Amino acid sequence: MTRDLPYRDNVGAVLFNRDGLVLVARRADLPNAEGAAGGWQLPQGGMDPGEDPRVAVLRELAEEIGTDKAEILAEHDTWLTYDLPPELVGKALGGRYRGQRQRWFALRFLGEDSDIRLDADPHPEFDAWRWVPIEELPGLAVNFKRPIYEELVRAFARFARRGAQAG
To answer: Which cofactor(s) does the record list (predicted)?
Structure first.
């Protein structure tokens, strides 16, 4: 049955600050997951039908962290996919998808920390955020997303240097 379900198209943001650290946010539905894998994640979200991924990633930033003050530095050259574990199929993602097909972007944050407003949405997805070294990302991910986070570290580590530019 799982193979009959489609992947949900999704975009994700690896948002770097001026010091080369990456924004992660704690899921509001997992407030006690301070140290647990999966409690903290990168901003990501579904795409509207026909939406350009480059437009979608900035929209998702605005919706999830309250600001789109960012510039795209790079786009991962392939769509990355993950399958939900069997116990989540039919429950997560509205029960309509087997997992997600994601287009990931590295972005430079152009604003100030005060521009990040998790309360911008009436139903915020996140309740806390912080900047972390990119190498910490795989350890924050739930098991089924860990390979994607490992790939993001490989693909975008060059932007983790202070002041790194697009390239």
So the answer is: Mg(2+); Mn(2+); a divalent metal cation
Is 56 strand, coil or helix?
Answer: helix
pLDDT tens column, 84-120: 888 888 877 878 888 899 999 999 999 999 999 998 8
Residue in 75, 93, 81, 82 with CA at minimum distance from that of residue 159: 75
Architecture of domain 2-160: Alpha-Beta Complex (3.90)
| Cα atoms in the Cβ-side hemisphere of radius 13 Å centred on 109 | 27
How far apart, in whole angstroms, are the C-alpha atoms of residue 42 and residue 140?
A: 9
Q: Look at residues 104, 134, 121, 145 and name the one whose alpha carbon lies nearest to residue 17.
A: 134
d(CA 92, CA 84): 8
